[in-house]
Write a structure and sequence with these properties.
Purple Acid Phosphatase, chain A, domain 2; 16 strands; 10 helices; six-stranded mixed beta sheet
Length: 308
């Protein structure tokens, strides 16, 4: 996310924008991944004026930072994807395309959806397919001609049944769901997760609550992460001032079935530069006493919730 204090912090002396400092400490984690996916919860534009909550419009430099971190895929289906109407959708998709970042979940038109709704990746002999859905768009209508993939069982079933399991080894669903600031998944999340599992999804990655929710890993069956929390934002209240980076190892020995392993890295957002800090950095740098207290509280809360 990009609230206005974040945009102001990224503004340089020459009036441009640079998010290097914000992502500096986590870029290596992204670059190390064979497949890096993010939830992009804003629209992008080459020109201002830029805006924060409730209708986001952020500098294209966000995509430059994503490219620098070697992000492979932006999941665009979330409650803020229609914040700037059709122009916002077109600008965001064009900016991502121009940076070589693949995308799914939101489309300029039906042709765009046919090309991007199911993203395929081949990594070290394992074939992946990625889909993306949202519960809604904050009551904003989907602009005429554009398409947003919703958490609609008919749409999801159609998409998932169209994936050839003879060609795809692992299906990933990135879903925007749940209740904001609720630290446990609700019945609807669990029901949707069960639906996705029945239709062949192996990895479920959730967002929207703005707080970390529990994660489940079955070595043979896959991974469910109910909410990653906030990777970066200006939300400073307890539980919302950070999130987790999920590293999922998908492995195959010889010709046997896939196995899964989950590692979660808590990350906390330090102001005023909005640097995303993993513990290996945060534990060693100097902070003011209040920042240190807030960081330690977030880390303790997150580790207790996840049992790590």
């Amino acid at each position: 996310m990009q609230h206005m204090p974040q945009v102001a912090a990224a503004r340089t002396a020459d009036g441009k924008y640079d998010y290097t400092e914000s992502f500096r400490h986590v870029a290596r984690i992204m670059r190390h991944a064979d497949l890096a996916i993010v939830n992009l919860e804003t629209t992008l534009s080459d020109v201002g004026p830029y805006t924060g909550y409730p209708c986001f419009r952020s500098p294209a430099a966000v995509a430059d930072a994503m490219r620098d971190m070697q992000v492979d895929l932006a999941a665009m289906a979330n409650n803020h994807c229609c914040d700037r109407g059709g122009a916002g959708i077109r600008a965001t998709t064009e900016i991502l395309d121009s940076r070589g970042i693949r995308r799914t979940g939101v489309y300029r038109d039906s042709i765009d959806r046919r090309l991007n709704a199911i993203q395929r990746f081949s990594r070290k002999g394992i074939e992946f397919a990625v889909v993306n859905y949202t519960y809604g768009t904050n009551g904003l209508p989907v602009p005429e001609g554009c398409i947003v993939d919703m958490l609609d069982t008919a749409v999801m079933a159609h998409d998932l049944l169209s994936i050839d399991h003879g060609e795809v080894d692992c299906i990933i669903a990135v879903v925007h769901w749940g209740n904001e600031y609720q630290r446990q998944p609700d019945k609807a999340q669990r029901a949707t997760a069960a639906f996705l599992r029945r239709h062949g999804v192996d990895i479920i990655i959730g967002s929207h609550p703005h707080v970390v929710q529990p994660a489940e890993c079955d070595t043979r069956k896959g991974v469910t992460i109910y909410s990653l929390g906030n990777f970066v934002s200006n939300q400073r209240q307890r539980y919302s001032d950070g999130g987790i980076i999920a590293t999922i190892d998908v492995m195959r020995t010889d010709d046997g079935p896939l196995t899964y392993r989950l590692e979660t890295t808590p990350v906390w957002v330090h102001t005023p530069d909005y640097a995303i800090l993993p513990p290996e950095v945060a534990d060693t740098i100097q902070m003011e006493a209040d920042a240190r207290r807030r960081y330690e509280l977030f880390i303790d809360d997150t580790r207790r919730l996840l049992g790590i």
